[in-house]
Design a protein that fits this description.
Layout: E1 12-13, H1 16-24, E2 29-35, H2 40-56, E3 61-66, H3 71-76, E4 84-89, E5 92-98, H4 104-112
Parallel strand pairs: 1-3, 2-3
Antiparallel strand pairs: 2-4, 4-5
Length: 117
C-alpha cells in the first residue's frame, strides 16, 4: 500500500516523505496520530480510533505516523509520548492531545473540538 492510500481501517499511514504534501499542504481538518506499535495504549486506542475514522470520514482526515520509523517527525513536532494527536486545519497546527481515554465519545470530542466554532 502506498503511503497516501487509505487503509482498510480508514486511517492512512504516512511517512516523513509524504507528511508535507498530505498534512501541511492539506485542506480542511486533519488529525495525525503519532504512535508506535509497541505502545500498549496505542493498541488499546486502535479499535476506538477506527470507529472515529469511520464516523468522521466525510468531515476529517485521520493519519498515523509510526514514530519508530519516522523519528525525525516525532522530534520536529516534539512528541514526548504516544499516542499523541496533533490537529491541523489547512496545514496549521490548531491543537494537540496526549492519548485520550480509549472510548469513542472521548476520542470524538478530542478530535473535533478544535475544529468547531
Amino acid at each position: 500500500m502506498k503511503a497516501d492510500d487509505r487503509s482498510e481501517d480508514g486511517i492512512t499511514t504516512i511517512t516523513g516523505d509524504t507528511f508535507e504534501r498530505m498534512v501541511l499542504e492539506g485542506n480542511g481538518p486533519i488529525a495525525v496520530e503519532f504512535m508506535s506499535y509497541s505502545c500498549a495504549h496505542c493498541g488499546a486506542m486502535e479499535p476506538v480510533l477506527q470507529q472515529a475514522a469511520e464516523f468522521l470520514k466525510d468531515k476529517e482526515r485521520i493519519f498515523r505516523v509510526n514514530i519508530a520509523i519516522d523519528e525525525d517527525l516525532a522530534r520536529r513536532f516534539e512528541i514526548e509520548g504516544t499516542p499523541t494527536f496533533v490537529l491541523f486545519l489547512n496545514g496549521r497546527e490548531v491543537g494537540r492531545m496526549g492519548g485520550p481515554s480509549p472510548d469513542i465519545s472521548s476520542v470524538l470530542a478530542e478530535l473535533t473540538q478544535p475544529f468547531e466554532g
